[in-house]
Structures are given as structure tokens and as C-alpha cells.
Amino acid sequence: MRIVSLDHKVIGLQYALTSLCFLLLGFFLILLLRWHLAWPTIAFPGVARLLPETLAFEGQLLPEFYNQLGAMHGTIMVFLAVVPLAVGAFGNYLVPLMVGAPDMAFPRLNAASYWLYLAGGLIMLAGFFLPGGAAASGWTSYPPLSILATAGQTAWLIGMLFLITSSLFGSINIIVTILQLRAPGLTMMRLPFFVWAQLVTAFLLLLAFPPLEGAVILQLMDRLAGTSFFLPTGLVVSGQAMNASGGGSPMLWQHLFWFLAHPEVYVLILPALGIVAEVIANITRKPLWGYRAMVGASLFMGFMSFLVWAHHMFLTGMGPTMSSFFQVTTMIISIPSVIIVTALLLSLYGGSIRFTVPGVFALAFLPMFGIGGLTGLPLALAAADIPLHDTYYVVGHFHYVVAPGTLFALFAGIYYWFPKVTGRSMNNALGYLHFWGSLIAMNGIFLPMMIQGLHGLNRRLYDGGRTYQAFQGFDGSFRGQAMSAILLAVVQLFFIVNLVWTLARGRRSSENPWQATTLEWATTSPPPHDNFATTPTVYRGAYDYSQPGAAADFTPQTQP
Amino acid sequence: MNIPYTVQPRPDTGVSNVIMGVWLFLASEVMLFGALFSAYAMLRVAAPAWPSGRQLLSLSSGSVNTLLLLVMTGLAWKARAAATDRARVLLLFSTLLAGAFLGVKFVEYRGEIALGMVPALNTFLATYYTLTGLHALHVVGGMLANFWIIAGIRRAGTAVSAQRMQAMSLYWAFVDVVWIAIFVLMYLS
After folding, report:
1. Which residue in A258, A167, A176 sits closest to A206, CA to CA?
2. CB proximity B2 to A under 8 Å
3. Average pLDDT score over residue span B77-100
4. What's the pLDDT tens digit per position in A548-559?
5. pTM of the full predicted structure?
6. Which of A165, A223, A227, A243 to probe the B interface (max B CBs under 10 A)?
7. Torsional sign, CA A335, A337, A338, A342
8. Does residue A1 have a pLDDT over 60?
């Protein structure tokens, strides 16, 4: 296998492997942080004492390093792990197969997209080796702090330019592939919901990332050319008037950043919903309930996601008129999410469910994403958001969406399509262990956050708030969370062992081990270089399970 | 590998892959420059005073550059329908005019910096350098793409080259539109 390949399947696997490594790294960074919050005086075994003196003193993390851990955990998880896994890996590997195409529309652009992503990720990580360490201004990089920050922030910004270019190439490729390369007979309304989800996601990436690109260019100008796009007039730093022309606006960055970052939330969740829809249709052996409503809801969700960004900014003093507008739009956007989750829930009704490993991950996704979504509603209202803002409640809320939400869907996807990718089925016992362990551990981490947040405990405090009178008594929950995080780390070993062991000597699987209907199962496992021996012709919708009069309980899309 | 609709338009969408790709790329470019122009508007509205571009910048250089870009884009559009050799000449001329644009811009920058008009001086100049600089990078990128088309025009064949030139003509039209917006907001304000 050549290292630079143009085959979408190889590129998809490159994306998968790289993003899983970043996922592990991002998790390890936050494990250090959670350990520090639980046992601040005890060195993290084996690692903390190896850190240089600029990061830790006798095994205790320094505040500067604490900030880097938080900022880089967020950045890595969102930009280098989950989105590349959901879009780069799953989108790349599966979209051409599901639409019956020989490859992506632009294979060279596709390869460029992967290599730019890798370069961008490495540039960001290189920040750890710069004087002053990696970016430490949060994953949001709010000015003026980010402009005063050390060189790691410049590495963050340059890395981000690479990632945005990578995402631009990837999203153009996915849209053109879906619209142009559909096999004969595969009309838009016969597309699997996964493909629809990828289409909407690609549009979000295409249109939401460029404003962040513009903002990154402006912040680079502020840091390197001495401009004041984000520096207000009369800024005083450490008792000294700052030597800058001023006249800029820190709010401008927040607007540009959240104009990307809120659609980004739907970039994180839509591919996950797509995977869950595929798996749920397969394990219930029924057509999806309300496929058309789900497609419409995802299109509406994509559109609305451009109109809600300032609900992250209720505390910036932008005024009640703006707040009212964004409260209303935020309430409206919860409707399509509820439609999709309700349709998935109703799809379960009356089915004889097969509790396979991907199945249990997909089923657990529904309540976990439900908790994440519903805890977001109070945050959409300015009156409730003002006390909750910047507390652990917010952290708990979005982690429920992304960790036991999106990540569970991605795990479901890995277990579900692994036989297609490798021709081997993953081990079930290890899979269930991975599932139950992760489910318990993730709730053990994120549920206490809700309670801490409702007590007002602020996030991002180096000492976990121990110096504040009001924030006493959280030591026990910090330790519980750290122990859950350690459990989460341990059960991921089952997953890693399962991947490696299955690759080496796993049980051989057939072309279509799950008895599924969509096009990717109509070719060999793994698929040949051009995917299909002959271009498939499609005769029916994506979810013809248990059709009356059919020979089996599934009718593939290629069957007349 | 045989990817469908690389040259022929797909009947139900009416376009080929490349043309759809270019339109999508331009949509994202609209968002990029749209964000920067919005930033310009937000900063300008909030500023207590805003310098006059007419007094600070060289209107003559700006006008010459506007003309150069419009003519070069016209040539790029003409090249689409031309025969191979003629297309190559037209495209080469067009690319040289883009080079002339960059030359004028360079001389302009040099004169401004010599006068101490650097980006850090005030927000007007900061936006001026950022917007024109990013636009100039687009001109550089377009020139590289033009050279790549010219070099490969025989090997790729008429159909594929025509496709590439069509894509580039759309790109150059966009670069023009951005320039005109910059010209109006910066040089004429």
C-alpha cells in the first residue's frame, strides 16, 4: 500500500487511524487534568515526573500547563479527533460506497485534504515544544488573552489554517460525490440517511469554516503584524498601557468564532445521527420511521445552525434585542433534533431488536444524546444561562452531546462497518465490555459536572475552586470523576485489543454479515480498488427491511 | 479508475464535477471575504473617526489595477471558446496582466510602507493590508493555476482543458468582484 494513496478507502483509513490517535491523545491530556483536580498533590504515576520544569514542579502541574491541557484537549477533540473521524474517515470511506461510485469525485484533492489535516495537527502539537508551550487560551482562543499569549498560539492559528483548507477540500469532495456520482436509479430520496447527514455536514463545513479562516488571519495579523483588530483602545496589561493602535473589538472575534463553532456542533452531531440511523434500521429489521421527516429535519437543522451562534455570547452585554433573537432561533433549532431522535425512537417500536455490539452503542446514544440535548434548553434562555454560564453545567451538557453521544455513535459505526473494511468481524465479548465500561465511566464523569455546575462551580479553575468559600466540598466528586476517567481509559484497552486482535486473527465475515440493504454491502469485504465490479443499479429505497412477500427479511437496494 | 461526469455534464444536475466543485469553492470564498468585509463594517461603525482612503491611497494605482484585472478576466473568458493554440496565447496574456497587477500592487505597498503607513498604524490600514494582501494571494494562486493549464493544454486535450479554463474564468470573475468591493471601500471612501 502506497503511503500517498488516491483511493478513498485508503484515505478514509488514514483519517481513521490518525484521528483515533488524536482521540487517545486528547483523552490523555484531560486525564492528566482530571487527576490534578482530584489529587493535586500526588504526581500522575509514571508521567508527571518526566515533564520539564516549565510544565510541572515535582510532579505537580503548573497553572500554565493546566491551561494548555484544557485548550489543547478541546482543540484536539473537536478539530483533530471527532470531526476528522466522523467526516474524514466515515464520510470518505462510506459515501462513495453508499452512492455506488468508484471513488470520490476529486481523488487528488481528497489526498491533499488528508495530508493538510495531518500537517495542521502536527503544527498545533508542535506548540508543546515551543517556549511557553502550546496554545493556552481555550479552544475558543478569545482575544485579548490569545493575542498576548506565547508562541504556541501562533502554532495553533497556523495549524488551524491548514485544517480549514483540509476541511474545504473534503467538503467540496463529499458534496460533489453525493450529487454527481450517484449510481443509476439512486434518487436523492433513496439515499441512506447517513449520506444525507454527510451532505448537510459538508455544507456546514463549506460555509461556516471560512469566517473562522478570516478570523484566524486577523488574529495572526494582530500577533505578527501588530494590528489591533481584536484589541480595544486603552488596553492596559500588567499595569502598562499596551503599545497598540487600538480601535479593535474582542467581540468581533467571538462573533466570527461562534459563526463557525455553532454549526460545528451540528457537524459533530449530524454524522453521528446518520450512523445511528443506519444501525437502528439494521438491528430493528424495519424501515426507518419517518425517513422523509428526518431528511427534512436535517436540512432545516443545517440552515438554522447559521442563525444561533450568539447564544454563546449572552454575557457579553450585546443587549436584550440580540439576546431575544438568538433565544428564539435556539429554541427553534431544538425542534429538528427532537424530530430526528423521536423518529429513531419510534423506529424501535414493534421491532424485534438484535442487540449486537453496534446496536447497543446506537441504542445508548439515544438517551445520552437526549440528556445532552435537553440540558441545553436552559442554556438557550438568557435568564437561565447567566448563572449557568462558565460553570461545569455547560461542560457537562456539551460533553453528554459529544462523548456518550457522538463518540458512542462513532464506536457503533466502527463495530458496524469493521467487517466491510477488513473482512473480519470484531469480538463480541470485548465489544460488550467496552460498551458497558464506557457507558458507566462516561456517566460517572459527566453527571457530577451537572450537579457541580448547578452549585455554581466555575470551569477552568486551576485548583478546582478550593480557594473559594463557596466551592468547598467538591473533593469527593472530583475524585469520583477522576476514578471514572481512569475506568474509561482502562475499558478503551478492550477496544484497542479488539481492533488489533481482529485485524490479525479475527473471525472471517461474509460480504453482508449484518444482512443490510444499502449499497456498501453489495460488494466484497474489503471492497476492490474501484469499489464495484460493475456499476450497481438501484431499484428501491435504503431501508427495505421485512417487506411483505420478500424472500428474506431484508431486500438489498440492488434487487429489482 | 473511471470517475463519471469529469467532463460531460450529468443530465439531472446539468453540470460536470469540476464546475460544481468550483461553484462550491466560490461559495466558501464568498463566506471568507464576506466575514472580512463584515469585520470591516463592524470596526468602521464602532470607530470614532475613519481616515479617508481617497487621501491616503493612490487612486491612480487602484484604477490602473482595476482595469488590468478586468481586461485579464476578459481574456480568460475569451480563451474558453478559443482553439488550443489561440487559447494558450490568450491565457498567457491574461496571466501576464495578472502579474502586472501584482507589480503595481507591490510598488504601491513599497511607497506606502516608505511613508510609514504600516498595518500597525491604525485600523483602516490594518484592514487595507489584510484585504488587499489576501486578494493578492488569490491572484498569485490564480496565476499558478493558469500556468498549470497552459503547460498541460496539449496533454490534457481540448475537452478537459476547456473545462479547466471555464473553471478558472469563474474564479477570475470572483477575484474581480472582490477587487471592486475593495476598490470602492478602500480607495473611493
Report:
1. A167
2. yes
3. 92
4. 999 899 999 999
5. 0.96
6. A227
7. positive
8. no
